[in-house]
Every structure is written in C-alpha cells, then in structure tokens.
Amino acid sequence: DFLCISLVNGFIQLRYNLGEKTVVLQTFQRVHANGNTWHSLKAGRVGNEGYLDLDSINITQKATPGMNALDTHTDFFVGGVSSLNLVNPMAVENEPTSFTGCIREIVINNRELKLTVTDPKGGANVGDCDGTECGYTVCKNNGTCQVENSGFSCSCPQEWTGSTCEQSIHCSQNGCGSQGLCIPQPTLSSYTCVCALGWSGRYCDRKINFFIAKFIGNSYIKYTDPYYDKRDLQYSRISLNFTTNQTDGLIAWIGKGEDEDNDFLAIGLANGTLKIVINLGERISVPLIHSKYSTCCDERWHFVTVIQNQTCIKVYLDEELILFEDIDPHRKYTALNYGGICYFGGFEFGREVNIVTTGLFQKEFIGKIKDVVLFQDSKKVQLMKAEGYNVYNGNYRN
C-alpha cells in the first residue's frame, strides 16, 4: 500500500493504492514555477475515495470497491527518499526525482509535523527556505514578527505577551506553581490553575492521594500499560466502577487515539445509556448500545466489564450480560492493538472528545471512576501513578 503526492509536468498528482488498483488524481491547474507564490495543498482519502485540493479547487475520485484502509509500515518521507528502492513504481509517473522548492505547514491527520533540525527522524540537503529569523510561525497568536540585527522581535496583540506572544497577559504573573497549568479567564481578567494528577488547591500546592478518581470536566488520566508487550491482544478485558449524574461522557478509551487508523475500545455514555465502541482495524468502528438500560446516570455505582474474544464482544453491566455480539464473523481483524495507552475521562488539553472520537462521544466524563482492572490482572490499575490533570479525590461523598 502507498499514498504519494508529487509534482508532474507542473501538475500536482495524488496516487494511492489500498491493495488492489492504483488511483491517480491530478489537478486541473498548473503550479507556476516562479518561486514567489505559496500554494495551499490538501490531499487524502476517506475510505477508498481520494481528494485533491489545490488553492481551493477540489477534485475527488473513488477507488475500486474493496479495501478501505491504508496499510503502511514504512517511514514518512517529505521532499524525497533516502533510497529509490523505497518508491513503489506505481507511485510516480516517471523515474522518481526529489522535490526542489519550499514546503511548510505539513499537517497529517490534524497533527502538524515539525520541520526542524531535531524533530524529524533524519534527512539531508534541506535548508532554511524563509531566509530570515522570522519564519512563518515564530510569533504565536497572530503576533507580528520583525527582523532585527540580533534576531527577531514580536509585536503582540493586546491579550498576549512573551518573546513569541506565547503567554496570555492574564497568566504572566500566575501563582500556579510547577504542578499547575495556568488557564486564562479573559472575561474575568484573571486565571485559574488546573492541577496535575496528585495535586489540588487553588494554586496546585497541596499533595493529595486517592483510590477513587473524581472527574469534574476538562479532566483526564492517561495510563501506560507496563505489561502491553506481554498481552495476548486477541483476548482483551477491562472492568471498572463508575458513577455520574450526566447522560453523556467518555469513561474510558483504550487506544492511542492519535489518528484514525489506531485500534481502540471505548466505554462511555450516550443519552443516558451505556455505549461501547470497538475498532480492530480498517477504521470500522462498531458501536454497541443497549437501549433498555437508562439508569447509568443515577449517581449510583455501576460495574461494567467489556470482554473481547477475537471478534466476539461481551458487555456486562452490574454483573448482567447486556450485550453479546460478533462484530466480524469473517475474523479479518482479531487483535486489539491499543499501543499500551488507556485514557480515562477524556484526552489532553486541546484535544476535544468529539474530535478525537470522530463524534462517537460528545463530551468528557463528569463523575467518579474506581477499581479499574485490565485483562486478568490480579491488581487494580494504580491511577495515581499515571499522568493527567484536573482529577481530584473522590474518596468522599462530595
């Protein structure tokens, strides 16, 4: 499989192959080689339908029905490759040649690649294209960059300060300390401190410990499974207790959640009922909802267990089997490759639940979680040893 974007005789081409036939899309307009004009290019695919957009002129095309996923196991190359042997002959029209020009602002699945000296895995013969100290994103938050003898300076909008306009004026004198994040509150001309896991207080200066995690919204815990490499991923299991008075929310997301190709198993609430979603491959997300149960938001403790036996899914709520389904009788994908990452309550700041889950869940969890057990482990997950923010002591009834 491959996906390749190239410049051919002045036209932009997108070529991709999902395992059967190569699809080729080409722009209607040429890219003029004057070296002075930046062009905006968007390309990709949804299932087997590809799209190519050059300066807001869009074309789309569907591949032959069949495979829907891009199965790639190589590095991602920009501008050229380290060896021509890595280029699939169907990925280019003629003999492959490296790109000559400037590239910036590369965004892959909503994540920007940092085209710096240190961030890429490797490279060669790449220099500074802007030619000045300013670049294109030196000054943040719409700041204006000016080249000076000593480098550059940023002229910041009224609400921002710092050498690169990176800090809100409301957080410039914050007292959040090393265990807190300052969140500006412009309407109040103030700020609030969001505390790291294990800390609380107005300025996140009070150490806390708990065995029941309380999520208040805009909260999350990210747990890395130390036994992931030893797991049999064809037979997964997770159980936990939760309580809430909300009708919607993401309770747990077992998976990296970095892009649309990641496997995952998710537990949450939708319209007051328990909702389970699992994806074992090809971005085919199978939601399982038991509509008879609408008591999940009654502020009582509920015990949920989800068992994945290859493609057979069992869901227990309060020790009663409520769902039993084979999501793929053909057994095409049978393992939950979750990367050893488990999220509880939500995701990191700036990663909205409805965006990361592509609308499967609408908001973060508000409530309490305890007694999390993965697989058949004899010990519960020690949530306090994970990372996270805005999670508090739920040991007491408050």
What is the chain-wise order of helices and strands? EEEEEEEEEEEEEEEEEEEEEEEEEEHEE
Q: Regarding quaternary structure, how should these chains be classified?
A: single chain
Strand content: 35-45%
Distance between the termini: 53 Å
Helix-and-strand structural type: mainly beta
CATH topology of the largest domain: Jelly Rolls
Report the CATH C-level class of the largest domain.
Mainly Beta
Rg estimate, integer Å: 25 Å
Look at the structure and give the mean pLDDT. Answer: 84
Number of strands: 28
Secondary structure: helix percent? under 10%
Q: Which residue ranges are poorly predicted, with pLDDT under 50 across at least 5 consecutive positions?
A: none
Largest sheet: 12 strands, antiparallel
CATH arch. level architecture of the largest domain: Sandwich
Task: Provide a concise account of the structure shown.
With 398 residues, this protein is mostly beta strands.
